[in-house]
Amino acid sequence: MSVSRRGVMKGGAAGALSIALAGSLESVFQTSAGAETSGYGPLVPDPKGILDLPKGFSYKTLSAEGDLIADGVTVPGKHDGMATYPGRRHDTLRLVRNHEQTASGVKPVAPAELVYDPAAFGGTTTLEVDRHGNLVDQQISLAGTSTNCAGGRTPWGTWLTCEETEGFAAQTKSHGWVFEVDPRGKRTKPVPITGMGRFAHEAVAIDPHTHTAYLTEDASKPFGLFYRFRPRAHRGEYHSYLEGGRLEAMNVRDLPDLSMVQEPGATFHCRWVKVPDPSAAATSTRKQFETITRSQKLEGAWWGHGKAYFVASYSRKSDGAAADHAGQVWKYDPHQNTIELELVFKAGGKFDGPDNITVSPYGGGVILAEDGDGEQFLIGTTRKGEPFAFGRNALNDSEFAGVTFSPDGRTLYANRQTPGVTFAITGPWHRLHR
């Protein structure tokens, strides 16, 4: 098509996109008629030029980069991974949000007991929001960490924030760890969960029954791995992961690179191999294997429907990958010990670079935050595997991140990374065309 994505989406000629799914193997825009049968219909241009959404949906902006929190304390930038939790009252909720800053930006300012490395600029902010979606309070809840990209919600109600780095020049402590943040602010300690390994962490998805954590790694030379961490303690307590466990890497026989799989529905049996040295004291964790399954740009992870979903943003042969694609979504079934390719964005298609992911309570699909080339979209899928464009960054080409629903399912929270801002999106969710 010669029409740009911007022109098509703003004109409402295509409100949904057919990505390569099981039963749908082409990457093309649907017609406007198709848009009315999948998703919430075409996007409506935002008069403010900030966020385009379907008809009937609206947004509020919360906690923007640079906002004043207290004297000498402002909101850091590079908003990224996020999750929701019950608030102090029955009619409020809390959001814990990452800041993917390394050694520059608006430095998080917090009490000394919440600071890990004074040289680092990453961390988390905790927001309190009322039932109308209004911000009522916010505070820095962890500081002195680095490059806090994604993370994951624990079954016992805390946030795991992940460092996507293996260190930087000015550090005073080692980096590349996972930290735990208590949304209530009572038990947060800047102590790395060393058992989960030191590597360029992206996200975590946790099985609520076994507390096994599934972790993604975004790294190159060589590419990153998909891990699982089986904790030694299984009591559902705040400190259970700090007591250690076994870190393993996924391996699929005769599949050295996940990009080799291009057909949705393809399923493979997994084997899990112990990581010899999770602390990576001498050798990076991903370099401790001669034979292992790798993937370029492993990103978001989310637990839903009894399975762990994880995302690869793209794969390029020019970077050393086995094949090209513009994004994959995989599903790991712990009962069958298998992975299945759920979705693939074909290289050269209209969407690219899926990143953060959340499972939607409406229709059983997912919401993906796009971090690709050019314009950035929030992408939804229905239970039937019909994808659609749900939102568009109308301000700039900065990525979306931190997609997560409120516990009651009425509000979708999402971040624009730069300049950092958190959106609260509400509307007729029940009208999803399935």
TrEMBL record:
Domain of life: Bacteria
Short name of any one Pfam family annotated for the protein: PhoX
Cited InterPro entries: PhoX, TAT_signal
Name of the protein this chain belongs to: DUF839 domain-containing protein
Species for this entry: Actinomadura rudentiformis
